[in-house]
Design goal:
Blueprint (H helix, E strand, L loop, with lengths): L12 H26 L9 H23 L6 H13 L2 H15 L1 H33 L1
Length: 141
Amino acid sequence: MPPERSSSGAPHAHRAVLAAIAIGGMLGASARHGLELAWPAASGQLPWATLATNLAGCALIGLLMVHVETGAPHPLLRPFLGVGVLGGFTTFSTYAVQTTRLVDAAGPALALAYLFGTVLGALAAVVLGTVLGRALLSVRR
Protein backbone atom coordinates (compact mmCIF):
# COMPACT_ATOMS: atom_id res chain seq x y z
CA MET A 1 0.00 0.00 0.00
CA PRO A 2 1.49 3.42 -0.96
CA PRO A 3 2.09 6.03 1.79
CA GLU A 4 -0.65 8.54 2.42
CA ARG A 5 0.02 11.84 0.75
CA SER A 6 -0.73 15.24 2.17
CA SER A 7 -2.57 17.93 0.23
CA SER A 8 0.82 19.03 -1.11
CA GLY A 9 1.46 15.51 -2.37
CA ALA A 10 4.43 14.97 -0.06
CA PRO A 11 4.20 11.76 1.98
CA HIS A 12 6.44 13.14 4.71
CA ALA A 13 4.59 16.43 5.25
CA HIS A 14 2.54 15.02 8.12
CA ARG A 15 5.69 13.86 9.88
CA ALA A 16 7.21 17.33 9.63
CA VAL A 17 4.07 18.92 11.08
CA LEU A 18 3.94 16.43 13.94
CA ALA A 19 7.63 16.95 14.67
CA ALA A 20 7.17 20.75 14.67
CA ILE A 21 4.23 20.47 17.08
CA ALA A 22 6.10 18.06 19.36
CA ILE A 23 9.26 20.15 19.54
CA GLY A 24 7.27 23.35 20.02
CA GLY A 25 5.13 21.69 22.69
CA MET A 26 8.21 20.61 24.61
CA LEU A 27 9.57 24.16 24.52
CA GLY A 28 6.29 25.77 25.53
CA ALA A 29 5.53 23.32 28.33
CA SER A 30 9.08 23.64 29.65
CA ALA A 31 8.77 27.43 29.73
CA ARG A 32 5.44 27.18 31.57
CA HIS A 33 6.87 24.67 34.05
CA GLY A 34 9.82 26.97 34.72
CA LEU A 35 7.48 29.87 35.38
CA GLU A 36 5.40 27.73 37.76
CA LEU A 37 8.56 26.74 39.66
CA ALA A 38 9.78 30.35 39.84
CA TRP A 39 6.40 31.73 40.93
CA PRO A 40 4.62 29.05 43.01
CA ALA A 41 1.21 29.66 44.54
CA ALA A 42 0.52 28.66 48.12
CA SER A 43 -2.66 26.78 48.91
CA GLY A 44 -5.65 29.09 48.80
CA GLN A 45 -3.84 31.83 46.88
CA LEU A 46 -4.42 32.88 43.31
CA PRO A 47 -2.09 30.96 40.94
CA TRP A 48 -0.55 34.06 39.35
CA ALA A 49 1.95 32.12 37.24
CA THR A 50 -0.80 30.18 35.47
CA LEU A 51 -2.87 33.31 35.00
CA ALA A 52 0.10 35.23 33.55
CA THR A 53 1.02 32.28 31.34
CA ASN A 54 -2.47 31.97 29.89
CA LEU A 55 -2.90 35.70 29.31
CA ALA A 56 0.54 36.11 27.69
CA GLY A 57 0.01 33.01 25.57
CA CYS A 58 -3.37 34.23 24.35
CA ALA A 59 -1.94 37.65 23.43
CA LEU A 60 0.85 35.95 21.49
CA ILE A 61 -1.69 33.73 19.71
CA GLY A 62 -3.51 36.90 18.59
CA LEU A 63 -0.25 38.33 17.23
CA LEU A 64 0.61 35.07 15.50
CA MET A 65 -2.78 34.80 13.82
CA VAL A 66 -2.43 38.28 12.32
CA HIS A 67 0.97 37.30 10.95
CA VAL A 68 -0.35 34.02 9.55
CA GLU A 69 -3.43 35.65 7.97
CA THR A 70 -1.59 38.55 6.36
CA GLY A 71 1.55 36.93 5.06
CA ALA A 72 2.88 33.81 3.49
CA PRO A 73 4.62 32.28 6.50
CA HIS A 74 6.54 29.05 6.44
CA PRO A 75 4.02 26.16 6.47
CA LEU A 76 5.43 24.90 9.79
CA LEU A 77 5.21 28.27 11.58
CA ARG A 78 1.64 27.91 12.84
CA PRO A 79 2.01 24.25 13.88
CA PHE A 80 5.31 24.98 15.63
CA LEU A 81 4.42 28.28 17.34
CA GLY A 82 0.64 28.19 17.57
CA VAL A 83 -0.11 24.56 18.33
CA GLY A 84 3.26 23.54 19.76
CA VAL A 85 4.94 26.37 21.67
CA LEU A 86 1.85 28.38 22.63
CA GLY A 87 -0.34 25.30 23.01
CA GLY A 88 2.22 23.84 25.39
CA PHE A 89 2.78 27.17 27.14
CA THR A 90 -0.87 27.93 27.87
CA THR A 91 -2.50 25.54 30.28
CA PHE A 92 -6.22 25.50 30.61
CA SER A 93 -6.17 22.00 32.12
CA THR A 94 -4.02 23.22 35.03
CA TYR A 95 -6.31 26.24 35.31
CA ALA A 96 -9.29 23.89 35.75
CA VAL A 97 -7.51 21.86 38.43
CA GLN A 98 -6.38 25.02 40.21
CA THR A 99 -9.93 26.39 40.15
CA THR A 100 -11.16 23.23 41.87
CA ARG A 101 -8.38 23.48 44.46
CA LEU A 102 -9.28 27.13 45.10
CA VAL A 103 -12.86 26.12 45.89
CA ASP A 104 -11.58 23.71 48.54
CA ALA A 105 -8.83 25.95 49.99
CA ALA A 106 -10.22 29.47 49.69
CA GLY A 107 -13.92 29.10 49.00
CA PRO A 108 -16.09 29.69 45.97
CA ALA A 109 -15.67 33.48 45.71
CA LEU A 110 -11.96 33.43 44.82
CA ALA A 111 -12.41 30.33 42.67
CA LEU A 112 -15.21 31.96 40.66
CA ALA A 113 -13.20 35.17 40.28
CA TYR A 114 -10.27 33.12 38.95
CA LEU A 115 -12.54 31.00 36.74
CA PHE A 116 -14.28 33.90 35.02
CA GLY A 117 -11.38 36.34 35.25
CA THR A 118 -9.12 33.96 33.36
CA VAL A 119 -11.63 33.38 30.56
CA LEU A 120 -12.43 37.08 30.17
CA GLY A 121 -8.76 38.00 30.44
CA ALA A 122 -7.79 35.39 27.84
CA LEU A 123 -10.38 36.67 25.38
CA ALA A 124 -9.26 40.25 25.97
CA ALA A 125 -5.62 39.19 25.51
CA VAL A 126 -6.37 37.59 22.13
CA VAL A 127 -8.17 40.75 21.03
CA LEU A 128 -5.30 42.90 22.31
CA GLY A 129 -2.75 40.73 20.49
CA THR A 130 -4.77 40.91 17.30
CA VAL A 131 -5.21 44.69 17.52
CA LEU A 132 -1.53 45.16 18.28
CA GLY A 133 -0.57 42.87 15.40
CA ARG A 134 -2.74 44.79 12.95
CA ALA A 135 -1.39 48.12 14.21
CA LEU A 136 2.19 46.92 13.78
CA LEU A 137 1.33 45.66 10.32
CA SER A 138 -0.16 48.99 9.26
CA VAL A 139 2.94 50.83 10.55
CA ARG A 140 5.18 48.54 8.50
CA ARG A 141 3.20 49.23 5.32
